[in-house]
Design goal:
- It is built from 23 helices and eight strands.
- 36% of the residues are buried.
- The chain is globular.
- It starts with 24 loop residues before the first helix and ends with a strand.
- Strand 6 and strand 7 form a beta hairpin.
Length: 607
């Protein structure tokens, strides 16, 4: 989900029951100076100033919010604590620090609930929903958006109702529930026009265009996008305009109208640069990369692809999921622990009353029983806490290992040495006026980049897709080595490669080792054989080469370092064994001439 449709969700009042008024930052700063005493008046002034500066100077805004929180905590002003935590969460959100934002919102909600300030509750529900939307945890996002919508209707706030409906529609679009998405968007549009909240109209129109496009009705989608662009200029909503321009470009690209597709993508890129939005620049560069590739403008395609990867990596949040989950777990655990303590205290009070009633006749017996009971209960609670803590630690370690390994795999997939040598080969072909070979090599290279791009976000792909990437890689290396590599890929008839699922590029490191360390040192043409068989509910990869072997390759190697590709592959297989309770593994055998690698994975089918 892009953040375009979520922009309006953090636009909430800093204070409850304060009228809407546009005040300059200078006047707000003067107001802070007029309240030097560390009391609620200064907290109010500081938070107004922090809110006004959140997008222009977030670092200074955070300092004002920190001071407001410090004053509120030292004076035990619960409302000030809740408002300060919410403002800090908004600033962290602008910084894209989602774990810290989630932490502030959850703490703010705990402080706010006893106060029964419904508008404050609504804004926190809304902000928590935003983060869950960013993390694609749509069930939780819809739950918080629904709470936000209920409170908005309770308060009679048409503006907040518009925001809640618009963003519920966006979530339904991501879930492919297009009918619900369109209903929410149209309801939001009606309320928005009735309340004259014009700035949001282009965003809602853009979201409806995205929904119709995903539904397959591209003509209607184009009509919504063009309305969004027209009103975006009128109401100065350039975020919506940038998104709509890029979406129109994607439609033209799908229709084969590459000239129009490129023009719209360039217009979107021009606006996103002015907005300094890394995510939207990434979307625009991705569209341009695909357009240039279709136009066979490979130099521009490669540069656009490089820019796309650069901006995409800068907005990646996958490594923050485990941190957010841990914060929410900590909150839930604290709440459950408080409930357990309250129940325990209640039981203790009843037991004490019973002891007092029978004090004269059963004091000794009951005292002994109570001591044993408390000791047993304490031992059980301590044991359970230690066991639960150990389980959470193991789960957190596994999640961290999964995230770390997946990130390493993404980096490994486009090997810098391979790219460098491939481009050197292109340069060599061009310098020798072998333009036909150079164009063919570059076309293959672009094809492989696109294959890797399409597979990089997936945890599993079909066997056919995986082998296609590996085969393209071998062909490129063969071209680079002047066709000195012969290869064959054989698939067991019992295996349907189009429905069999495997982790992407699981054998690519072994093929790469065969070429770089086995075949490149031979004086005669090399051979690689890849066989895939099915045995005992497992899928077996068998990679053989007729290279110089591991022993001779080790002598020729400059260092004794273990292959990074092998380390990462073994980590991935270890994760598969832990998460699926499987018996996957890797075995490397030395042959009389060359090396054999056997990789065993659990068989997964796409149905």
């Amino acid at each position: 989900m892009t953040k375009l449709s979520l922009l309006i969700l953090l636009i909430v009042q800093v204070f409850v029951c304060i009228g809407q008024q546009t005040v300059s930052i200078d006047s707000l700063l003067q107001n802070v100076r007029q309240h030097p005493t560390r009391d609620s008046n200064r907290v109010t002034a500081l938070l107004k100033l922090a809110d006004a500066m959140v997008y222009t100077d977030p670092a200074t805004s955070m300092r004002h919010a920190d001071e407001a929180l410090d004053i509120s905590e030292k004076s035990n002003w619960a409302k000030g604590i809740a408002l300060s935590l919410r403002e800090k969460g908004n600033i962290y959100y602008v910084f894209s620090d989602l774990p810290s934002a989630m932490d502030c919102y959850i703490k703010g909600l705990k402080e706010a609930r006893p106060l029964n300030i419904r508008q404050l509750d609504a804004s926190l529900f809304n902000n928590l929903a935003n983060i869950y939307s960013d993390l694609k945890q749509y069930d939780k996002a819809l739950d918080y958006y629904q709470q936000y919508l209920d409170v908005s209707r309770e308060l009679g706030s048409g503006k907040d109702e518009t925001i809640a409906l618009a963003n519920m529609g966006t979530v339904y679009t991501e879930l492919n529930e297009h009918r619900k998405a369109i209903e929410c968007g149209q309801q939001a549009l009606v309320i928005c026009r009735k309340e004259r909240v014009n700035y949001y109209i282009p965003i809602i129109l853009n979201n409806l265009g995205i929904t119709y496009n995903k539904r397959g009705d591209k003509d209607s989608a184009l009509a919504w996008f063009r309305q969004s662009i027209e009103l975006a200029d009128k109401y100065s909503n350039y975020d919506a305009k940038a998104s709509s321009l890029n979406e129109i470009g994607k439609i033209y690209l799908a229709r084969g109208d590459y000239a129009n597709a490129g023009n719209y993508a360039l217009k979107s890129l021009q606006i996103t640069r002015q907005l300094h939005s890394a995510e939207w620049q990434s979307n625009a560069w991705e569209s341009l990369y695909k357009v240039y590739e279709k136009q066979h403008r490979y130099d521009k395609a490669f540069e656009a692809y490089r820019q796309f990867i650069l901006f995409r990596d800068s907005v990646s949040n996958e490594d923050k999921r485990s941190a957010l989950a841990r914060k929410e777990m900590a909150f839930d655990f604290e709440r459950k622990e408080a409930a357990t303590k309250a129940e325990h205290d209640k039981r203790e009070a009843l037991a004490q009353a019973e002891i007092n009633r029978q004090r004269l006749i059963k004091r000794g017996i009951l005292a002994g029983v109570m001591i044993l009971l408390v000791a047993g209960l304490s031992s059980f609670v301590l044991y359970k806490r230690r066991r639960d803590a150990e389980e959470r630690r193991k789960e957190a370690d596994l999640k961290a290992k999964v995230s770390d390994t997946e990130m390493k795999v993404l980096r490994l997939q486009m090997n810098p040495h391979f790219i460098f040598n491939s481009l050197n080969s292109v340069s060599d072909y061009i310098s020798k006026h072998e333009t036909t070979t150079a164009n063919y090599f570059l076309s293959k290279f672009a094809k492989m980049m696109r294959q890797v791009l399409e597979n990089s976000e997936k945890k599993e792909i079909t066997l056919a897709e995986d082998l296609q990437v590996v085969e393209t890689y071998i062909q490129l290396e063969s071209l680079r080595l002047r066709n000195e590599i012969n290869y064959e890929i054989c698939i067991d008839p019992d295996i349907d490669p189009d429905v069999t699922l495997v982790p992407p590029l699981i054998i690519q490191p072994f093929v790469e080792n065969s070429i770089w360390h086995g075949l490149s040192g031979k004086t005669r043409p090399g051979r690689i054989s890849i066989r895939i068989v099915r045995e005992d509910g497992m899928i077996h990869y068998i990679v053989e080469d007729n290279g110089i072997g591991r022993k001779e390759a080790g002598k020729q190697a400059k260092t004794g370092k273990r292959s990074m590709g092998l380390r990462i592959t073994l980590d991935r297989i270890d994760i598969i064994n832990q998460t699926r309770r499987a018996k996957a593994g890797v075995e490397i055998l030395d042959l009389s001439e060359g090396t054999r690698v056997e990789v065993k994975l659990p068989l997964e089918l796409n149905y």
